[in-house]
Amino acid sequence: MKIEYRCSRCGYTIEATSWLWQCPKCGGPLDLVIEGLKFTLSEYRGLWRFSSVIPAKPLVSLGEGFTPLVKADFLGKGSYLKLEYLNPTGSFKDRGSAVAISKALEFGAKAVVEDSSGNAGISVAAYAATASIKARIYVPKDAPEGKKTLIRSLGAELIETSSRTEASRVAIKSVGPNEVYIGHAWNPWFLQGTKTLAYELLNQIGHVPNAVILPVSAGTLLLGLWIGFNELLGFGLINKVPRLYAVQTQGFADLYGRIHGEYSKEPTKFADALRVSNPPRLGQMVNAVTGSGGDALVIEDDELLQAWKTLLKRGYIVEPSSAIALSGYMKLLSNNYIGSDDEVVIILTGSGLKYIDIMSKV
């Protein structure tokens, strides 16, 4: 297997023999070009069952992947809920962290640096702890207290900044010798973990659904699905890519804006996990949505809260940012973008156990 970095902006290419997260020529995001990729199921359990298509050694695992896929007949007879919030640290980010930190170890990293609104920071902190390396996590000061407590409890150094954007800027600037910047919004290795969700859905259903609906902010899950489904298409294991519907929150809808025109709204008060402005892979996100025949849509806080309550009353303990996917499903259904008989997977991305204090207020 030959692996190269390729810049999505300027085309700069170099063999992937060391850790890079950004193009050294133009500063653009890097993709991985993998030659000789072959797909076989391994003897591992969880995410690493797909190790044949993951360009990293399985050095770190907490048992991530193969989360439950539950029929949601209360929505429609073809509807499924994919419970990604049941990953080890309570979010889909564990897929990316397992692969990215395994690769960081391969390259000799002694510490990892991440910026996050919470879930990615928790995930990176946990996998760094499992790998016995240091983690330093930069978060906006208004991140949920429960998430900040978890990051500290996992042994990571937590540093608060004035905003989500500032967290990213300071984190990148802080990286020292023998440290690597995980930067999940930029990191091409992280996407090699999230792409396993596409393989997993095929494994669990036996075919691909008509559509996948998911919350989208920096785009790591959206792009992972796009990569994974296209690899499966290349292997001849599927004959189409499902329509990908990216659901965004008010005030942080750059993808929607790029496709449909500017969307101006006051920032969300509840979907803290989706507060990313100017995602570095925005152009690729547009391509994933439009190339799959899907779309982007925006959900406002009142719609989000109603969906959150609905899911909680059905027994799904998710965070508000996950509930936005259900709101997206309802909007797509009412506007006839999907039918009640369509086979649709709704991704529930993060755990509500980190939001007990907020639940009591709402």
TrEMBL record:
**Any one GO biological process:** L-serine catabolic process
Q: Which UniProt keywords apply?
A: Lyase, Pyridoxal phosphate
Domain of life according to the entry: Archaea
UniProt-listed CDD domains:
rubredoxin_like (cd00350), Thr-synth_1 (cd01563)
Q: Which InterPro entries match?
A: Ser/Thr_Dehydratase, TrpB-like_PALP, TrpB-like_PALP_sf
Outline the extent of the Tryptophan synthase beta chain-like PALP domain.
Answer: 60-350
Q: Name one Pfam family in it.
A: PALP
Q: Name one GO molecular function term.
A: L-serine ammonia-lyase activity
Q: Which cofactors are named for this entry?
A: pyridoxal 5'-phosphate
Tagged with keyword rRNA-binding: no
What this protein is called in its record is Threonine synthase
List the source organism: Vulcanisaeta moutnovskia (strain 768-28)
